[in-house]
Amino acid sequence: MSLPRSELTKLRTAPGLVWCLVGAAAVMLGLPLLASAGNPGTYGRAAFVDEFRFVHQPLSGDGTLTARVRTPAGGHPWAMTGLMVKESATPGARYAAVLVTPGHGTRVQADFTVDIAGGEAASWLRLVRTGPTVTGYASTDGVAWQRVAEVPMAGMASTVEIGLFATSPAATRTVATRPVLVPTRPATAVFDSVSMAGPWTGTDVGIPGGPSTVESSGTFAVTAQPGDIIARADDGSRVVAATAGTFAGMLPLVALGALVMTAEYRRHLVRTTLAASPRRGPVLAAKALVTGGACFAAALVATAGALLLAQPLLRRSGYRPPTYPDPSLSDPRVLRVIAGTAAAAALVALLSLGLGTILRRGAAAITAVAAVLLVPAVMTPLLPAGAGRWVQRLSPVAGLSVQQVRETDDAFLLPWAGRPWTGLAVLAGYAVAALTAAYLLLRRRDA
Amino acid sequence: MRLARALHAEWTKLRTVPATACLPPATVVATAALGTAVSTSCGGDCDAARLSLSGVYLGQLAVVALAVLAAAGEYRHGLAATTLMAVPARLVAFTAKALAVTAAVLPAAALAVAASLAASRAPLPPGPSLRAGGGTVVYLVLVALLALGVAATIRRTAPALSTVLGLLYMAPIAAQFVTDDRWRTLIERATPAPAALAIQDTTDPAHPWSGLAVLAAWTAAALTAGATAFIRRDG
After folding, report:
1. Among A37, A99, A177, A283, which residue's Cβ finds the most Cβ atoms within 10 Å?
2. Is this complex's ipTM strictly greater than 0.90?
């Protein structure tokens, strides 16, 4: 009982260590508030995103458009290439479309809310408007057609625009860290065997104009600036905001974990410590308990505080009900984010404590933790998507997966998307391994 | 003359203290090894030179550690007092330290970059690759001097190291959480890294050198702060 108490006293009375804790909490609280205040009115303008390249012509009454997708737009699992009828080529106008995506197969979508899956990505698409309904068909060879879905479009104007479209969400949604100062590239889709004759009009719906459509002998290259066609929904932004400072706040905790041990070697206090309690195991365990507990508490208070204090700022920026409901502390997902963040912060400090005990020098320990924690996080955007994800999955950064809020297959520093606890377990594995090695070395070595 | 003697003394310290002596070779090994590993992961459409040079994300750790130990390590065992007794002119001592660190980092960085580029499997465009390689060497030297300035200001290895690592690694990550494009662009452009590594882009970037200029400004500020603190404080 006296060991944890003496360790707590050391932690409490060393100004450097206290500053580490205060600094970490300040970053974990301050960055979310800065980030929340730094989004003046970016959201909440419309209930939908409607941004794509549309090559279209007017259609009165019923009609059929068939085309082959030679090259679908790429760059994102949700890049879309397909055929569409739309009341007019303006953002927000009603529409129905049959489309293919790289990651989610063939789909029929309408009016931002209808989304019907239709199996593997097809290479031939057909869109048929009959009276008040629009039907999408798909085919692998252009001969045998399969109906994907029929959507009722009652009340749609009789004269609409029909044509080819392409769009691809910005690469910001696909890679962990945006390649700095490098603009995201437009996506290009290529169609041929288009059943309707021209003249066609090219329009960039909802986005600034980009390169014009290239048409040569029946082949269309439709190039879209980054965009998307989707209803805005609660994407968890009001919870995610609370996690903005976690990673940056971990750096002072890394220093803290290392210094708890290395400062003793520096001032030879370790001899006194080990003279007072010669058994190495309890000493290391007491240090781990106090360090982990202090970091857990600091991160818990800072993250919960950030969540609560960021809400007024976010509401002012347009994150309001009903699209963005108020987060509640009793929501299990919110609880997981807050408690998991605190646990990840504590585990990073314990990893650092282990490495500090092994290396016995503060500078060396901090460099080592930086090598396994920071380098994988920062260099991921340079790697191909699959390799980058595995680098993060197997490094201690995986622990941040516990912060996942959004249901996405692409997210920032969340390599274990869908399995938040697995990521935390990977980090815990690193911490346990480091502390075990530290214990074995501490027992063998002379102080 | 005084500077030459002081430089010789600083160089001897760097060369004979095991911790600092092993760091230039570590820079080369870490940079080249990671760069080689990463460049094999490229499946076609990628910037080959940038990938093979991406080892600097790891290699710069050794460079930063070297500079921090050179500037702040002396205070640990009271060696700083001896240094200042031998070279009482503070500015001379500080300049000698900066020159010695540059002399240690420059060949290591050049070797690391050359080894990384040589290990690339994909063909490299000669002109832009030369710019990318040369820019990376300059980047590593500037990062070392930035760390030296910060460490001379703070005088303790662990806090100095944390500060420099925070500057280099945390700003781009924190910027990710700012969804307003103007703010994010401002943060990304005004912080020292990784904007400076835009120099590694061989796919015709708009302003390859502007990021390095930002880093150079940070380095100048850190060196000024470090020199001022070193001159005005008691050893």
Report:
1. A99
2. no
Final residue before a domain boundary, out of A231, A253, A271? A231
Q: What are phi and psi of A57, to 5 degrees?
A: -150, 160
Residue A184 phi/psi, 5-degree rounding, is -70, 145
* Full-model pTM: 0.75
Q: Are the Cβ atoms of B57 and A412 closer than 8 angstroms?
A: no
CA A383, CA A358: separation in Å to the nearest integer?
Answer: 31
| Domain co-membership, A245 together with A295 | yes
Query: Do A407 and A335 share a structural domain?
Result: yes
Range(s) of the domain holding residue A81: 50-231
Please give the tally of structural domains in chain A.
2
A394 and A246 co-located in one domain: yes
Do residues A38 and A56 both lie within one domain? no
Q: Choose among A79, A80, A64, A73: nearest CA to A190.
A: A73
Question: What CA–CA distance (Å, rounded) separates A330 from B34?
Answer: 44
- By C-alpha distance, the chain B residue nearest A240 is B177
> What range defines the domain where residue B193 resides?
2-232
A16 and A135 in a single domain? The answer is: no
Taking alpha carbons only, the member of A353, A241, A340 closest to residue A299 is: A340
Cα–Cα distances (Å) from A93 to A156, A301, B227, in that order, read: 10, 46, 63
Asked if B68's CB is within 8 angstroms of A42's CB, the reply is no
Total domain count, chain B: 1
- Last residue of some domain: A231, A264, A284? A231
The token pair that represents A88 in the structure block: 């007019």
**How far does the CA of residue A105 sit from the closest CA of chain B (Å)?**
23
Q: Is residue A252 domain-shared with residue A336, that is, in the same domain?
A: yes
Say yes or no: A282 and A430 in one domain. Answer: yes
Q: Which single residue is written with the structure tokens 């020098």? A: A361
Residues A98, A212 contacting (CB under 8 angstroms) = no
Are A193 and A336 members of one domain? Answer: no
Beta strands per DSSP E along A111-211: 114-117, 124-130, 133-139, 146-152, 159-167, 187-192, 201-205
Write out chain A's pLDDT in tens, 447 residues. Answer: 588 898 999 888 888 899 999 999 999 999 888 878 765 444 444 667 788 899 999 999 899 999 999 988 887 788 899 999 999 888 888 999 999 998 889 999 998 888 898 888 889 999 999 989 999 999 999 899 999 999 998 888 889 999 999 988 764 433 323 333 333 567 888 998 888 887 888 888 887 766 666 677 778 888 887 778 877 766 677 888 888 889 889 999 999 999 999 988 888 888 888 888 888 899 999 999 999 999 999 999 999 999 999 999 888 877 777 777 888 888 998 999 999 999 999 999 999 999 999 999 888 999 999 888 888 887 776 777 677 788 888 999 899 999 888 765 455 677 887 788 999 999 999 999 999 999 999 999 877
CB contact under 8 A, B174 and A362: no
